[in-house]
Design a protein that fits this description.
With 57 residues, the protein is an alpha+beta fold. It is 30% helix and 28% strand. The protein has one domain. The structure holds zinc ion.
């Protein structure tokens, strides 16, 4: 099972994350590469800040 980033569609291999053609028939687990994961976390944080759901310390 390979992990594919559902944002930029990079797949994880033994060297790290790289953009490559997905082999047909291969099973993919959708996830986030470290880059997109960080972006997503920032987006989530901004979302909570904008919606006032985040309690300021
Ligand atoms: Zn990605």
């Amino acid at each position: 099972m390979q992990v594919i980033c559902c944002v930029c569609h990079k797949t994880k291999n033994h060297k790290g994350w790289a953009k490559q053609a997905a082999r047909s028939g291969a099973q993919f687990s959708h996830g986030y590469c470290p880059q997109c994961y960080r972006q997503m976390m920032e987006m989530v944080e901004n979302f909570f800040v904008l919606n006032g759901c985040r309690k300021s310390a």
